[in-house]
């Protein structure tokens, strides 16, 4: 499941006419790797202007898990499900404090990968209670402390998600936002119906809120909603020549660290 990609996919489906648009609101149900996700798309003048997706129930496996990270010492990690299993770390509490901004990009990537690997090698292995094949932390989210308050309507949070082997999610991350809402709710920082702005490393923003609560196995869970916008920037045409010696493509390990046997 990817929230940012789901917003993009919905926008493409509606703006290109692959799925019929109904103004002012089009409702869709999309199948994802994490389960069915309902979508409410704002539409005007033949354009999808914003997409809100009602994500799968999200919950916390553990708060403040101490993890020993080589070179960093003990790092406090929250582990939560938001469509992927996240390790969530406050960037301001490691190595003297790191601000989530482009100039710190290489350091955030390097430290984020180290923390994630340490979590994956620890004794704590999160397993989704409804699907035991979903197990183990697969992605890491750096956060900064909240600013503003829900009561005054200006609650804001900053995050960036590190995608292996070393890339940032450019958007505020839909599943990461959902996992963070589960953590915020567990800490009493966000209640049902309260909204906050989740901002990314490039300062783009999702509007996020909790529309209800439920249970997933033994875990208290929230029903998160994430809303954002996307724009079509180009179209690509792919062809296959019958004489092409690489009809299924190829991989080179210079960027994505492809294994020798891949």
From TrEMBL:
Q: Which SUPFAM superfamilies match?
A: Diaminopimelate epimerase-like
* TM region positions: none
Q: Which residues form the active site?
A: 2 (proton acceptor), 173 (proton donor)
**One MF term in the entry's GO annotations:** 4-hydroxyproline epimerase activity
Q: Which InterPro entries match?
A: Pro_racemase_fam (IPR008794)
**Family the entry assigns:** Belongs to the proline racemase family.
Name this protein carries in UniProt: Proline racemase
Higher taxonomy: Eukaryota, Fungi, Dikarya, Ascomycota, Pezizomycotina
């Amino acid at each position: 499941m990817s929230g940012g990609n789901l917003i993009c996919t919905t926008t493409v489906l509606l703006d290109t006419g692959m799925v019929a648009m109904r103004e002012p609101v089009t409702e869709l149900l999309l199948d994802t790797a994490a389960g069915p996700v309902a979508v409410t798309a704002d539409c005007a003048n033949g354009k999808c202007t914003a997409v809100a997706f009602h994500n799968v129930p999200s919950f916390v496996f553990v708060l403040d898990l101490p993890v020993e990270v080589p070179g960093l010492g003990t790092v406090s990690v929250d582990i939560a499900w938001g469509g992927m299993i996240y390790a969530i770390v406050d960037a301001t509490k490691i190595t003297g404090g790191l601000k989530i901004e482009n100039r710190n990009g290489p350091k955030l990537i390097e430290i984020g990968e180290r923390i994630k690997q340490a979590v994956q090698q620890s004794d704590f292995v999160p397993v989704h209670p409804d699907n035991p094949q979903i197990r183990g932390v697969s992605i890491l989210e750096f956060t900064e402390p909240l600013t503003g308050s829900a009561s005054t309507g200006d609650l804001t949070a900053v995050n960036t998600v590190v995608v292996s082997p070393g890339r940032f999610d450019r958007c505020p991350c839909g599943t990461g936002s959902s996992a963070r809402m589960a953590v915020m709710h567990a800490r009493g920082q966000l209640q049902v119906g309260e909204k906050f702005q989740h901002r990314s490393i490039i300062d783009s923003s999702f509007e996020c809120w909790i529309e209800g609560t439920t249970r997933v196995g033994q875990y208290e869970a929230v029903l998160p909603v994430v809303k954002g916008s996307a724009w079509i920037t180009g179209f690509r045409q792919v062809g296959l020549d019958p004489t092409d010696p690489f009809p299924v493509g190829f991989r080179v390990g210079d960027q994505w660290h492809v294994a020798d046997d891949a």
